[in-house]
Amino acid sequence: VEDPRLVALADGLRDAPVKLGSDNPDNLYLSAQISSDFSYLLTGTIGDAPYLQIGLQEGSYGSAGGLKTVASRDKASLHIADDQSVHILIRPTGGGQSEGQGGL
Fold first, then answer.
1. Alpha-helix residue ranges (DSSP H) falling in the chain
2. Confidence of residue 100 (pLDDT cuts 50, 70, 90)
3. Is the Cβ–Cβ distance between 32 and 9 less than 8 Å?
4. What angle do CA 102, 97, 91 make, to 5 degrees?
5. Strands 30-31 and 10-11, how do they pair?
6. Residue 54 to residues 51, 57, 79: CA-CA distances in angstroms?
7. Which of 6, 52, 59 has its CA nearest to residue 29?
8. For the chain, what is the HEC assignment?
9. Which of 34, 41, 68, 95 is buried most deeply by CB count within 10 Å?
10. Measuring CA to CA, which residue among 34, 31, 9, 33 is closest to residue 20?
11. Residues 51, 56, 62, 64: is their CA dihedral positive or negative?
């Protein structure tokens, strides 16, 4: 059984890529399935990326309610350290929201 607390980003360039609707050929799409039962810390470096967006979705295409964005952050809203590193906490928000919703 896989541990839902330990996840890795799936590369958007793999044989069965993950894409969102009308994808942009200039973008690199990475994804990870996470559980609303846990908090996650996303870490990395920005490097020379001119644009970065991180979105948190719930649901799926073709399901009741579809795929909806519940949180989103872009490069301008992130704290980027002098060494270009970022740390983003992804957590459930609670408070009666529907299952799976969380915050960045």
1. none
2. very low
3. yes
4. 20
5. antiparallel
6. 10, 10, 13
7. 52
8. CCCCCCCCCEECCCCCCCCCCCCCCCCCCEECCCCCCCCEEEEEECCCCCCCEEEEEEECCCCCCCEEEEEEEEHHHCCCCCCCEEEEEEEECCCCCCCCCEEC
9. 34
10. 31
11. negative
Share of the chain above pLDDT 90, in %: 21
pLDDT tens digits for range 1-50: 467 677 777 766 666 566 666 677 777 778 888 888 888 999 999 988 88
65 in the Ramachandran plot: left (φ > 0), alpha (ψ -120 to 50) or beta? left
Collapse the DSSP code of 76 into the 3-class scheme (helix H, G, I; strand E, B; otherwise coil) and give the result.
helix
Residue 69 confidence class, pLDDT cut points 50, 70, 90: confident
Span 52-77, mean pLDDT?
Answer: 87
Q: What is the mean pLDDT of residues 73-102?
A: 78
CB 86 within 8 A of CB 95: no
